[in-house]
Amino acid sequence: MKITLLFIVCLVVFVRPVWGIPILIIVTSTLFQLSHYMVIPLPVGYLEATESIIVVLCLRLFFDRKLQRNSNLMLQTCTNTLEQEMMVKRVLLSAIIPYVVWQSITIFIGVVSSEGTEHVRYGIRYFLNSITPWLLIWAIWQLRYYKDKILYYIALITIVTAIVHIVIQATDYRAIMPLAYWGNPSAEYLHQYENRLSKLIYDVYMRVLPQGTILILFFSVYYFSKYIIGIYRQKLFIILSIICFMALAITLTRSLLFSVLWGFLIAVILAAYYRLYDFTRIFRVFNILMLLFFVIGIYSATINPSFLNLWQERVDTLITGVDAKVFSPENPSRGLDNLASIDAIKDSPFLGTGSPRHQHQYSYRLGPPTDIHPLLQIGLVGGIPAILLFLRLLYLIIRKIGLPALGDSERIIRILPFTAILIMTALIVNTIGAGGTTSGNGLIAMTLIIGMLAVYYPSDATDAKINEE
After folding, report:
1. pLDDT tens-digit profile of 227-272?
2. How far apart are CA 277 and CA 291, in angstroms?
3. Is 120 helix (H, G, I), strand (E, B) or coil?
4. Residue 46 three-state SS
5. CB–CB of 35/27 below 8 Å?
6. Burial code of 62-79, b = ≥16 C-beta within 10 A, e = fewer?
7. Residue 307: pLDDT above 80?
8. Which of 81, 312, 410, 447 could disulfide-link 461, Cβ–Cβ 3.0 to 4.6 Å?
9. Could you give the CA distance from residue 429 to residue 465 in angstroms, rounded to a whole number?
10. What SS3 class is residue 131?
């Protein structure tokens, strides 16, 4: 059944490549854990829908590209746009290729030199989760003449996911929570799944995160940026931003709320720097804050009276407890995992270990690591050079593509929301460890934003299209 389901999905992606990225988002970044129903066991590890869809999509686009070249089909593009596209491609290649190649080499060395199947399995899985999603940027570039349609579908799927998530949480519909948030887990996560089921009985409030949490975070900042710079449909944009914000706030996750608030601030700073934010309309920000407080107050007063109290407890725990000590042995989970990871990186600072998990001899606790800092995961795989290459990657893309010169207002309006998201990702999300965007669904979300930034940067000077059929 799983093979048949995965085959049908890949066939649809191959036949209709424009639907490929929206289908990937539906499978990997919504509710009900649809990807769990397409996992194919292998002799070492397993094959997931994520890498299958990405590879099939790229193969179809590669064949389309070969067909165009063999048929001498040339897109009519003005010289200025062509130069801009070449600049964007050079920046992307110079930023991404060194990081991807280095991580691939270290994973290969780690797999070859490791003992036991567990280390090999983690190395291969990390390669599939953290290297193959970078192909999405190339796929978006090949589909750049359909960028508006693809962005619309991704946004629509994310907003629907946020709304359904809010409804489930607001109604406290616990009967559907296991299916909606945890799906059909593999044997590796069965114990964790059973612990979550037991909490449904006695926990007053269930803190659950949908698969598309990072995309919801990104689109909250995206629509807020659209609202701040004052383009059309402002009321719609602020409503959509608040929907995504509430979907994050209702999870009681401090790092997500901190990230989205910083994302809002970054959007305001960018708009002010590029003179797109009129300070005579500063009441817009006050209107947003008042509306947010009103919505949260209504929810707390009518639906979940304990909501604000729970948030107060979470904040107090962060200030007075050990939750903020993420690199201290006082934190029994995250702190010990991060310290063990640092020790492993110290022993292999150049090539890393080729695996995103430190080996058992470094562990400070009995169970497996569950919450390693995103940058430390990169360092475990490829050592300190991998961390530096990843930071360089984000810096080059933001600096060379995301921050154009002053006065280029038309381009700035197109790309400012994506730039705000990437700056938030680099400075906040991957720093405080809010899930991170270095692998899995978080990396898929970030590569989509990078791809959209790349295709919206050049001037729109052609209506030409690639073969969609």
Report:
1. 888 766 678 898 899 999 999 989 888 889 999 999 999 998 998 8
2. 20
3. helix
4. strand
5. yes
6. eebeeeeeeeeeeeebee
7. no
8. 81
9. 36
10. coil
